[in-house]
């Protein structure tokens, strides 16, 4: 095991007399020579770092992983990567070199782009076992600044190839000890899901808006970097500015990606700028592997005459997830929407599930909470999510609160930054502690994984329930001095983001706002799913306790917010959607609530009005409660706000704001946030009809039991989807011809499927291929199975 291999190595730091300012720090080379009498049949290397590290043996890069050792809660979990290196060794003299930069450990991070989140030193820990020869980091290693003159994940990378020349002096490394260095218990085996260079894209266009400047369009928003093989003659200085949009002059604009300091309002630079200076040697290639960027366009300044844009390629970089889902239908716009969701996930699955690949690059809990179910239909995200949940548990506060971003540079307690600390524990964000493990259980069925998450899940519900019982909102206390019996379960205190970014509703990051209709709904949901999880793993005591919390929160939500059957005191599409999705309305009232939701959509001109938390739940809430036509009409609506409206305005990934590109072409916010792309789960569950049990036990989780129930509509003539499940491929394909509905399904081994046809017929089938027909013209007609 890699942790065992590295156990006796010593932490070392590069020689760094005066560390430059954040964003301007170089990458350092650390090296050592060693002798081998002969090359053994097997040899391994284990490595980790405070920072990002690449290792080279005899001039050859070890492995193809990027951004090693990945992003984790470094104070409690630091990954160790292991490699088979026998093929890179040679008899006699060998040389091991490591290239070490700031990375997430001490580089800039988050909305306010603060540096030194985990420490103000970079360090390396490495060990090689080659037969009876052992080489490990110790005081004998040497270091020097590299040709990478600055490297920061947010600011970018600068490389001066002229520095490769000559005999640059080496200095002894420093041995590092004390604090984190001495804590070997935090060393863990690296996740099987690694960040890699996944794909290379040729530019779709290259323009020259002014002398000396070329603007590259790679055709879509991606996460990664440019690789440039033509760096020009010696001393050519190319500057690469990465962004998502162009200004009126055809240059890259960064204005939509600039954040600000919450306390002062000071606007911050957007970063994402690389520099490279050519030494004029044949074969020089610039590929900035110590940073990443979220971009579609790259402005390259300093281009000499005769420069060849054909030498440029975009490298797509993200976690190497196994594709799982496929979808297609007769409406190409929905195919494009599915593609948008896939690329939104690809752009934000860079070792952790990020909110965006350019401005923050943080593991916002709310983002993965709303998208993980959809993500699991598109890719295998089990191990990817498990790694992130380990960090969530590590950074959960002692009182059960969950920070807004995971991994959290402040660790498992306050950071001292007012807004950061205030927002920890927001409903819908902190609920990721429960909702993400539950969705993984539904999709992958790992009982031990669910059992392992239960303590973290319980701590979150304890916190939320305690917050609900521990106070009253001042306005409620003023208008109703005597607390109502249901109020101990009404969560109306503390900071909450609320629905967040509803169309036409300015965001209010205000701790005095009353978001109890949202928070109480999530308290019920998390408590109910904690109870279900505890039941699955056989913890009756936790199940009973959580059921009591869920029942109390349900009663409080109904007492406080339901005025008449199917009507809410605080009306919004989001509140009705959540009430239906979380089964907060009484069963007999759900059709009325869905009818009112459809009316609100009609009042909005046929457009959706949901924000961050409930957008992915909107269409199922309508379709499952008698409003299929409205669901399809909303899915296929155009203009702003709508999904197709984003596509019509050039989106290749989902936007943060529904109106991110205004009628005048002005752009605001990130153009690559995946939360609104959660709608594509509807394409699988309702259009194609592949549905998991909502509350599976061990006998039905992980596609052991499924329901195939397509809901044709929207003028679609055909649709098909496939998911590569833990049991094998599951497929559903249907078409409509002259009023006849034909469905073909493929059921994997060890799966039982209930097939529900549009005419009301039901069939239960096991593994294999099956075909069905039904009349859409005569609902009374019964289907016949054709085998």
UniProtKB/TrEMBL annotation:
Gene3D superfamilies: 1.50.10.10, Galactose-binding domain-like, Maltose phosphorylase, domain 3. The lineage of its organism: Bacteria, Bacillati, Actinomycetota, Actinomycetes, Micrococcales. Residues 700-769 form the Alpha-L-rhamnosidase C-terminal domain. Residues 324-687 form the Alpha-L-rhamnosidase six-hairpin glycosidase domain. It comes from the Bacteria. The keyword Transit peptide does not apply. This is alpha-L-rhamnosidase. It catalyses: Hydrolysis of terminal non-reducing alpha-L-rhamnose residues in alpha-L-rhamnosides. Signal peptide: none annotated. Residues 209-318 form the Alpha-L-rhamnosidase concanavalin-like domain. Residues 41-166 form the Bacterial alpha-L-rhamnosidase N-terminal domain. One of its GO terms (molecular function) is hydrolase activity. It holds the Pfam family Bac_rhamnosid. Coiled coil: none annotated. Keywords: Hydrolase. SUPFAM superfamilies: Six-hairpin glycosidases. It comes from Microbacterium deminutum. Its EC number is 3.2.1.40.
């Amino acid at each position: 095991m890699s942790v065992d291999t590295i156990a006796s190595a010593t932490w070392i730091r590069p020689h760094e007399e005066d560390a430059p300012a954040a964003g301007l720090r170089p990458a350092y080379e650390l090296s050592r020579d060693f002798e081998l009498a002969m090359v053994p049949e097997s040899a391994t290397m284990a490595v980790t770092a405070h920072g990002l590290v690449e290792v080279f043996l005899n001039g050859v890069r070890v492995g193809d992983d990027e951004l090693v050792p990945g992003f984790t809660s470094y104070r409690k979990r630091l990954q160790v990567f292991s490699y088979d290196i026998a093929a890179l060794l040679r008899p006699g003299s060998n040389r091991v070199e490591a290239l070490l930069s700031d990375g997430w450990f001490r580089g800039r991070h988050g909305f306010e782009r603060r540096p030194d989140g985990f420490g103000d030193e970079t360090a390396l820990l490495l060990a090689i076992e080659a037969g009876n020869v052992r080489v490990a980091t110790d005081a004998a290693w040497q270091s020097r600044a590299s040709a990478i003159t600055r490297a920061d994940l947010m600011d970018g990378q600068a490389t001066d190839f002229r520095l490769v020349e000559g005999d640059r002096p080496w200095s002894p490394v420093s041995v590092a000890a004390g604090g984190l260095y001495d804590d070997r218990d935090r060393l863990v085996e690296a996740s099987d899901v690694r960040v890699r260079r996944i794909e290379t894209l040729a530019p779709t266009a290259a323009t020259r808006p002014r002398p000396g400047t070329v603007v590259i369009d790679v055709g879509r928003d991606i996460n990664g970097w440019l690789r440039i093989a033509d760096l020009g003659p010696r001393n050519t200085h190319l500057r690469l500015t990465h962004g998502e949009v162009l200004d009126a002059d055809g240059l890259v604009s960064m204005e939509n990606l600039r954040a600000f300091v919450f306390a002062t309002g000071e606007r911050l630079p957007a970063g994402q700028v690389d520099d490279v200076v050519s030494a004029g040697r044949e074969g020089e290639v610039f590929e900035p592997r110590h940073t990443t960027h979220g971009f579609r366009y790259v402005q390259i300044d300093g281009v000499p005459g005769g420069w060849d844009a054909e030498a440029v390629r975009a490298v797509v970089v993200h976690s190497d997830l196994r594709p799982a889902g496929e979808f297609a239908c007769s409406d190409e716009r929905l195919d494009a929407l599915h593609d948008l969701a896939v690329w939104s996930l690809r752009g934000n699955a860079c070792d952790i599930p990020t909110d965006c690949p350019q401005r923050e690059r943080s593991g916002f809990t709310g983002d993965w909470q709303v998208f993980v179910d959809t993500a699991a239909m598109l890719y295998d995200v089990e191990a990817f999510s498990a790694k992130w949940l380990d960090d969530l548990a590590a950074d959960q506060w002692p009182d059960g609160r969950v920070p807004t971003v995971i991994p959290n540079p402040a660790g498992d307690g306050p950071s001292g930054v007012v807004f950061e600390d205030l927002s920890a524990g927001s409903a819908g964000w902190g609920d990721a502690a429960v909702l993400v493990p539950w969705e993984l259980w539904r999709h992958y069925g790992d009982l031990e994984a669910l059992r392992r998450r239960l303590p973290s899940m319980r701590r979150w519900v304890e916190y939320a329930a305690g917050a609900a019982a521990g106070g009253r909102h001042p306005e409620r206390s003023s208008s109703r001095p005597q607390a109502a019996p249901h109020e101990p379960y009404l969560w109306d205190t503390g900071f909450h983001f609320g629905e967040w970014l509803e169309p036409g509703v300015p965001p209010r990051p205000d701790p005095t706002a009353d978001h109890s209709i949202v928070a109480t709904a999530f308290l019920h949901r998390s408590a109910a799913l904690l109870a279900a999880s505890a039941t699955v793993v056989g913890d009756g005591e936790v199940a009973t306790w959580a059921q009591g919390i869920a029942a109390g929160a349900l009663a409080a939500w109904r007492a406080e917010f339901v005025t008449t059957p199917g009507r809410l005191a605080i009306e919004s599409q989001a509140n009705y959607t959540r009430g239906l999705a979380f089964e907060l309305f009484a069963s007999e009232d759900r059709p009325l609530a869905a009818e009112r939701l459809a009316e609100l959509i009609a009042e909005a001109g046929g457009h959706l009005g949901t924000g961050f938390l409930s957008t992915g739940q909107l269409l199922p809430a309508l379709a499952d409660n008698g409003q299929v036509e409205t669901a399809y009409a909303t899915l296929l609506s155009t203009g702003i706000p709508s999904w197709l409206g984003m596509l019509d305005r050039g989106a290749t990934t989902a936007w943060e704001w529904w109106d991110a590109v205004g009628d005048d072409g002005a752009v605001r916010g990130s153009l690559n946030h995946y939360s609104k792309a959660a709608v594509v789960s509807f394409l699988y569950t309702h259009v194609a009809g592949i549905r998991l049990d909502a509350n599976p036990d061990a006998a039905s989780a992980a596609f052991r039991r499924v329901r195939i129930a397509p809901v044709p509509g929207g003028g679609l003539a055909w649709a098909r989807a496939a998911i590569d499940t833990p049991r094998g491929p599951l497929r559903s394909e249907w078409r409509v011809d002259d009023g006849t509905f034909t469905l073909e399904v493929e059921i994997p081994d060890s799966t039982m499927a209930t097939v529900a046809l549009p005419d009301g017929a039901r069939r239960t089938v096991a593994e294999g291929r099956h075909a069905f027909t039904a009349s859409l013209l005569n609902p009374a007609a019964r289907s016949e199975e054709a085998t």
